[in-house]
């Protein structure tokens, strides 16, 4: 009976998904561009700061580990929120979208306040955790104390950005990021080097430029959202309209996502601490590799987030067969994307690090590392789609947490300690050893996806909305 029902729906599914790639590009295209611009910002920051020497590039890279930590916390909160928002969007439940955003905003702002206080009052403390080099600590503390204010801006931006993406309005964050990138690069040019009569503040100038750019990015995003009265443009009252039951439902699904990002980010910080203790040149090369590799990751970030929106929406529309079909397609596409991008990174690896004004040893380490990591990209791409895109969009956040927890702390970090301190491998071979973590994740996540147990309709546990929901012509605006 069930097989007959599934067979009967197959032609309909085939007709519905004939424009699958077009739909994917429509959603993920702006996300890719935004990710490219955001990553380009990091790249140009590193490139410009690199003109100041090895100490500057190492110190700013380590200082930004604080921002890396808090951004992953924000990402955990926003991803947990997006799991619900995408499904509520499929169900056209605007009130629940606002309540979900409200919880996300409260959690993000609390986290931002905590990290801001630490960075303002004791910036040397986190720097000493990462590096024993006193020059690196002192320089990084200067940067950290200034950039701390921007954490508040980012807390709000990332929730609105994730919500806009989940309601198929990804072009708004893209526009805001374009302005932010231009402003940051211009201010970097003026304030780092003292061009056109501006003060040459060096590392401090880079921090000021970043803070101003993030503030303007937030203002542009909010202005465009509320000017067009989009679905996510709620009032403070609507954002805070969640009750105890709604918070409980939210945390059952979202808390594993938040813990996932915290646990994963702590693992990435552990890697950076290991690299830093292998020498200043090693950590400087790792920062260069991170900036360059991020440029190649933008495709995966876009398609992974696009897959989450598309799959979550189908689940919210009560169409699990389409969600399962989408999942299978994204598994194959991720491998194709990963292999293609990896090939490009391999051939460009000897050339891109030369753009940084660092020592020849750092250029050599970065080039060799990128060539090694090129072979790992298909696995990274698959895992990004399976965990961020498929499992989370289906509400299977506990499985995602378990996969990330075991892969980082039972496989990756122990191998990093072994390779870095016992075997004393060069950084590029250490990357290869740590990549066994990615192979482990591919195996476990594929088993989970094939089981079909990852599909959970989260909208069925939410009380029905009693107040009317009115949409504009496009279905994405509220008149």
What does this structure look like?
The chain has helices at residues 2-16, 20-50, 54-90, 94-121, 124-130, 134-147, 150-166, 171-193, 203-227, 236-239, 244-276, 280-316, 320-348, 360-374, 377-393, 397-422, 427-434, 436-451. Helices cover 80% and strands 0% of the residues. The model is unreliable at 1-11 and 463-479 (pLDDT under 50). It has one domain. With 479 residues, it is an all-alpha fold. Helix 4 runs antiparallel to helix 7 and helix 12 (280-316) runs parallel beside helix 15 (377-393).
Topology:
Layout: H1 2-16, H2 20-50, H3 54-90, H4 94-121, H5 124-130, H6 134-147, H7 150-166, H8 171-193, H9 203-227, H10 236-239, H11 244-276, H12 280-316, H13 320-348, H14 360-374, H15 377-393, H16 397-422, H17 427-434, H18 436-451
Helix pairs in contact: 2-8, 2-12, 3-4, 3-6, 3-7, 3-11, 3-12, 4-6, 4-7, 6-9, 7-9, 8-9, 11-16, 12-13, 12-14, 12-15, 13-14, 13-15, 14-17, 15-18, 16-17, 16-18
List key phrases describing it.
mainly alpha, globular, disordered C terminus, 479 residues
Task: Summarize this structure briefly.
The protein is mostly helical. The chain is built from 18 helices and no strands. Helix content is 80%, strand content 0%.
**Quaternary structure annotation:** single chain
- In total, the number of strands is 0
What distance separates the N and C termini? 45 Å
Largest sheet: none
Radius of gyration: 22 Å
The portion of residues assigned to helices is over 70%
* Average pLDDT score: 83
> What class, by secondary structure content?
mainly alpha
What's the overall geometry? Answer: globular
- What are the secondary-structure elements, in order, as H or E? HHHHHHHHHHHHHHHHHH
Instruction: Give me the number of helical elements.
Output: 18
Number of domains: 1
Poorly predicted residue ranges: 1-11, 463-479
Query: How much beta, percentage-wise?
Result: under 5%
